[in-house]
Amino acid sequence: MTQDEMKKQAAWAALEFIPHNTIVGVGTGSTVNHFIDALASIKQHIQGAVSSSVQSTLKLEALGIPVFELNDIDSFSVYVDGADEINPAKHMIKGGGAALTREKIVAAVAERFICIVDSSKQVDTLGAFPLPVEVLPMAIAYVQRQLNKLGGEAILRKGVITDNGNVILDVHNLHITDPLALENSINNIVGVVCNGIFAHRRADTVLIGTVTGTKIIN
Ligand code: 5RP
């Protein structure tokens, strides 16, 4: 079984967790693209979606799923998204697709975060995947110096502008033993818009595509 087949398996398994007649929060990435395909197969049973990126919005609309503005919704029950890494506490690194800020905002409004991953994303300690940090362009050099003081090596992601008009610094060589504290520390650097540690808003349920079927962790 390929990695993509395991992503697809986890994505389709998420349909079990979508209540009827609801608005669904939708993340971004290749695993979520499979989820959007799955969601289209039950589109007559949902009201629509709230999207975390232009990329996901385009795919949702192309498949005939109405997309609502987050500001028009007080709350919704389920947010489904992938991750770059997830640890046993269900803390994640996200942002490999540069959509971390909108993902964190949509996830904050959702009652339940369902994380869909293939088994390669499971780790004991976060940090082997370079941590994405969205930064205002005028603050790149300052934020880079501050991130390097935390022990990592912050490298500008070339050719990428986020949906919010900002850039991404990827922080290499981190060994994140306290994700909650590091998420706070990086948020406190002036010029940082958002960082890719999802510890304060961790996943509630994890669906892991494996060679022997989908594993569910609650
Ligand atoms: C995008 C994300 C994605 O969820 C993460 O990068 C995983 O992507 P994929 O499903 O393609 O492996 O955080 O910003």
From TrEMBL:
SUPFAM superfamilies for this protein: D-ribose-5-phosphate isomerase (RpiA), lid domain (SSF75445), NagB/RpiA/CoA transferase-like (SSF100950)
PANTHER family associated with the record: RIBOSE-5-PHOSPHATE ISOMERASE
Binding site for substrate: 28-31, 81-84, 94-97, 121
GO cellular component: cytosol
Functional pathway: Carbohydrate degradation; pentose phosphate pathway; D-ribose 5-phosphate from D-ribulose 5-phosphate (non-oxidative stage): step 1/1
Keyword Thylakoid: no
UniProt-listed InterPro entries: NagB/RpiA_transferase-like, Ribose5P_isomerase_typA_subgr, Ribose5P_isomerase_type_A
HAMAP family, sorted: Rib_5P_isom_A
Family per similarity comment: Belongs to the ribose 5-phosphate isomerase family.
Positions annotated as active site in the UniProt record: 103
Biological role: Catalyzes the reversible conversion of ribose-5-phosphate to ribulose 5-phosphate.
Quaternary structure and partners: Homodimer.
Gene3D superfamilies, A to Z: 3.30.70.260, 3.40.50.1360
Keywords assigned by UniProt, alphabetized: Isomerase
Molecular function GO labels: ribose-5-phosphate isomerase activity
Annotated organism of origin: Rheinheimera salexigens
Keyword Cytoplasm assigned: no
NCBIfam families: PRK00702.1 (NF001924), rpiA (TIGR00021)
Name the record gives this protein: Ribose-5-phosphate isomerase A
One record GO biological process: pentose-phosphate shunt, non-oxidative branch
